[in-house]
Amino acid sequence: MTVATPQHATTGEFIRTPEQIARDLQAADLRSLGYTYAMIGERMGVDRSTACRMVQRSVMELPTEGAEEVRRVELEKIDRAERYYNGILSSPPPKIGNNGKVVHDDQGRVVIDEGIRMDAATGILKAQAARAKLLGLNAPTRIQEEVVVYDADPDREQRIREMVRAAVDAKHAS
After folding, report:
1. Is residue 148 a part of any domain in this protein?
2. Most CB within 10 Å of its CB: which of 19, 86, 138, 159?
3. Are 75 and 131 in the same domain?
4. DSSP per-residue letters across 122-165
């Protein structure tokens, strides 16, 4: 393996060699397979922080052209669906009987189809959830776990602590 000397562009930024780009991509591939940064570093012969930077560099180069346009189009679809459902709620359709005619109550008033209104309300909630997800508005969920160990031998306790530490590291690495 040839070690390339660092080069700098006229902007002062580091220029990566094709070999470095390939290694960064390999690190990102390992990350996508569920490897932690520590595991990637061990496999590639670098420390954890270098493995993290390798993955980050590779991810930063993913093509994003058109992503904003796709997001805009998807938001328009969601908005259109929500407007449709709001229209149903504001002007609900009449209930149609088994005979195909509009149903009237005892005073002769048209009966509203509540099932369609409920479906529209559900549609609005789904549209709002889709919008929040697309825009990244959903807050991350924090999970706290506790492990209590009674009457364990010292080796077993140490193994449990290592497993908990590894789980925490994996959670922070993702």
Report:
1. no
2. 86
3. yes
4. HHHHHHHHHHHHHHT-SPPPP--------S--HHHHHHHHHHHH
